[in-house]
Amino acid sequence: MNIVVLAMPPLQQATPCLIIPVWQTACETPLLKELDTRLAGDLSLALQTGAFMGRSGEKLLLHAGRRLPAERVLLVGLGEAKPAGEALRKGAALAVAVLREQRLTDCCLVVPETAPEETGDAARALAEGLLLADYRFDRFLTENLDRLPPTLKEVGLLIAETGRQDAATEGARRAQIVCRSVTMARDLVNQPGNIKSPEYMATQAAEMATAAGLKCMVLDRAQLKTEGCGALLAVGQGSVREPRLIVLEYLGGNPGEKPLALVGKAVVFDSGGLSLKPGEKMDEMKSDMAGGAAVLGTMAAAAGLKLPVNLIGIIPAVENLPSGTAYRPGDILTSLSGKTIEVLNTDAEGRLILADALTYAARFAPRAVIDLATLTGACIIALGNHTTAVLGTDQALIDRLRQAGEETGERLWQLPLWEEYDEQIKSEVADVKNTGGRPAGTITAAAFLRKFVPEGCPWAHLDIAGPSWEEKGGGYLPLGATGVGVRLLIRYLEAGG
User: pLDDT by residue (tens digit) across 143-175?
Assistant: First the structure.
């Protein structure tokens, strides 16, 4: 999709479809009054009958005939939602759904009038909504492709004043960079398990690093054994596809400045191992590497935006399968940190590979660590599919992440991490056990991870089990992978995180 910013009166623009976002509290702006006059009262009639009131999710498609240069006019309701960015993203996504129904590939979208300093953010939110909603994973379809709704090709963002064009253009540019990275993350998560091995993940990371100008190092099984990554190796030993540890480095900040470490769980397929999962929905376990995909996407976007930060990305990639070589309940593992772990459930594998990855992060002396993981089903039970759980050791870090979540629509909800929860993961035969049972499952998983965080380092854990996967799809979140985490982390970094 090519997005350009144009400074010209919207009702003078020739286009197959002119899209006008409308706030519920502003249905009689000068633009809408002029539009109503040009369309001989069609809009006022819709308002009077309640057919369109600007409520969130409402749409009104009008055919202009010869009354306007535009062939159609589409009004999309924004409601009264705050923050404005999320309402604009949803409005743009609604427009994409209508364009697909009409099989249109070109359109123009009016950027609502805002304060001058908000022009760039408004253009960025609209562009994000368009780009994210226009995504689909269709690379394995071979038949009836002509029946698929077309994707967008050309979109003009219209602004009222020439003086705001630069800000709007920059907002749209940033949206395109970030959304390319979200698309990369979605594609990785959507890839089927027969293609997506740990080696495949490492290859994709290396190719991205080369294109983005990042450093990339990949540790194979032999190197992981030499390092002493006993927890990571144990999880992967049931599969013939050997594990990898992917380490990425982006140095956009001042030389010598401590990096922020991002750690992402990447279980490319999770059967549960010998503690086998139920067959229902096991196909979705190809998504158990969404945390690693988010880290890859964030590193790519940070480089594309040239953010002034130093970042380390660490992604432990494994496949968790049952076999004659698989690790067992009752096994005791020696992690990279030297701590021993009693395995009670081989389906609590994500925290094991993260334990070694978090320990590995210490050698970079990070100023803070953020990990992302589809870690617990308990998180979905507690919070549903709309929210990421956040836990950690540094309240300021958590608060900044939560603020970024509010601004991007990737919202976070904080859960407690009191020391009392450590009691549930105490082991009689090892330093710690890998599950604390059903009560507070999301919290005890985080309590386990905390034991492997570099000492004294601020840390936040994001359990993205719920929002990483969409079972129905809607708005700007498609069926399947959502790419959650990329926009959140980029916003956090842009705000000085």
Answer: 888 888 899 999 999 998 888 999 999 999 999
* 310-354 tens-digit pLDDT: 999 999 999 999 999 999 999 999 999 999 999 999 999 999 999
pLDDT digits (tens, 9 = 90+) for 201-246: 999 999 999 999 999 999 999 999 999 999 999 999 999 999 999 9
Nearest to 106 by CA among 19, 47, 23: 19
Strand 388-392 to 459-463 pairing? antiparallel
Q: What's the half-sphere exposure (Cβ side, CA atoms, 13 Å) at 93?
A: 20
The C-alpha angle with vertex 107 and arms to 65 and 103, in degrees rounded to 5, equals: 80
Helix (H) / strand (E) element for 202: namely helix 198-212
**How many CB atoms are closer than 10 A to CB 436?**
22
- Spatial contact of 274 and 322, defined as CB atoms under 8 Å apart: yes
Q: Are the C-beta atoms of 246 and 216 separated by less than 8 Å?
A: yes
Which ranges in the chain are annotated with CATH 3.40.630.10?
Answer: 191-494
Contact 294, 483 (CB under 8 A): yes
Choosing among 3.60.60.10, 3.30.300.30, 3.40.220.10, 3.10.20.310, the CATH entry for 2-180 is 3.40.220.10
Give the integer Cα–Cα distance in Å for 479 and 492: 26
| CATH code linked to domain 191-494 | 3.40.630.10
Q: Quick check: bond before 278 cis, omega within 30?
A: no
- In the numeric block, the tokens 């079972």 are attached to 471
What are the catalytic residues?
Answer: 277, 351
Cβ(6)–Cβ(158) under 8 Å?
yes
Other Cβ atoms within 10 Å of 82 Cβ, number: 9
Nearest Cα neighbor of 195 from 85, 107, 269, 94 is 269
Cβ–Cβ under 8 Å, residues 377 and 351: no
Q: Does pTM top 0.90 for this prediction?
A: yes
Q: Please answer whether residues 493 and 309 qualify as being in contact, where contact means their C-beta atoms are separated by less than 8 angstroms.
A: yes
Q: Could you tell me where in the chain the CATH 3.40.220.10 domains are found? A: 2-180
Q: Which residue has the tokens 């995180």?
A: 497
Give the residue from 295, 460, 294 showing the smallest Cα distance to 370. Answer: 460
Strand partners of residue 4:
156
